[in-house]
Amino acid sequence: MTKPVRVRFAPSPTGGLHLGGVRTVLYNYLFARQHGGQFILRIEDTDQTRFVPGAEDYIFNCLAWCGLVPDESVQRPGAVGPYRQSERKEMYHQYAHRLVEQGDAYYAFDTPAELEQMRERFKTAENPSPTYNQHTRQHMRNSLHMELEAARELIAEGTPYVVRIKMPDDETIRFTDMIRGEVSFHSSQVDDKVLLKADGMPTYHLAVVVDDYLMQITHAFRGEEWLSSAPVHLRLWQQLGWTDHMPQWAHLPLIMGPDGAKLSKRHGNKYGFPIFAMNWTDPVKNEFTEGFRERGFLPEAFVNLLALLGWNDGSGQEIMTLDEMVSRFSMERVHSAGAQFDFEKAKWYNHEWIKRSSAQRLLPDVKAVLQQRGLQPTATDEQLASIIDLVKERCTLLPDFYEQLAYFFAAPARIDLDSISGKWNEQKTLFFAELIRSYELLPYWQSTDLEHSFKEIAAANHLKPGELMLPFRIMLVGGKFGPGVFDIAQHIGQADTIGRIRLTLGLLGPAH
Ligand code: GLU
To answer: Which residue of 87, 274, 334, 510 has the smallest Cβ count within 10 Å?
Structure first.
């Protein structure tokens, strides 16, 4: 019987979530949903020196915004908790000691000064930073050259110690990655990593293996930067006797910036685009990084563009809902080469999503944008929704709704008179004066009637309507933008339309 799928995202609460992190979440989520499995979020906070207050809340808020809520987490505990590694501290000890007992790990008592001496002593031109490994371990202070009893006595006396893995001298370590296929390492290339630290906390290496086992994880998807740790983890799975339970791994390719280097905050600053999901201010470094949410991306667009950064279903379709992605996703179709992030393309996704979203869907976001800019629209939700439908094609990011909507509720602050005055003449003044009279008498205020009267008066005055529409538009909205001008007039209403024509006629002064 196949085991139920259980995947996990295991962030360290050291900062905000960037594109790569959220993409890992997304691939986990898609895979879990597709297989009717569970998506677990585990907080990997064993490195207390890197802990950043607020980062954990940020991660949860960010996943909530993206709509990728884990099935089990600190916030929604399941049967295999706790879901924060610092609260599981004691659980790891027995495994570390078991490995020592078996001879697959050892106690090491070296002081920082001794470690430094070792690095100095074995430094060569080819190997400028020697590590603790099969060549150096015999020169160090560890339980490999003493009776285990003697080592335990030292520990009982309170001598600080760590537990290190003893990597085999000459073995090839292999596994099959879901994206990369067969991957192998030679054990001599891998150092004796610390498993248990002097403060009693496990390192990531021990904790990730123990927790993936205890939490019954079936598939582990993580960034490519962890590939080099895979042999240590494989060895631990073997030596703890859990190989049959080992998850299938996929190491996800990096996301690159426009210059081909690994995407980083530096790219965001240099090119002026966000790389974090939501705004994040690091309270320790006091550093601000901009987010996609605040730039005005819809979460639907954000997860869509992320999914396609390194994956496609082969059909050429780029715009997909989360449900479509769930049914089409496959880890085998994730490219092994890095994906290049293109901000213009990201904006394209958002524009497409705004165009396809219903006005009802957009309404709360648009209201928030207007409110932020201090505009309280005097319109019912229904009226606002019909205006949103009129202008949404013209909005790439949510803040664009402000420019496209503000003139519906308040006369434009600035009117681009220069674009009118060059071709202005008395005939046009007379036309608009007559238009005002006609509009004042209209019993219904409908765009079709407005257009009809407009064209009739133009024809009667031997004027081309095309030459009058641009001035009319500028009178109403302030510039050369917006949807159909009669639709705008309909929504602005009779009094305001007439008022704005009068206002501009006044500004243009008497025609010569
Ligand atoms: N804590 C690791 C990180 O911050 C998790 C790596 C993994 O998923 O194994 O990325």
So the answer is: 510
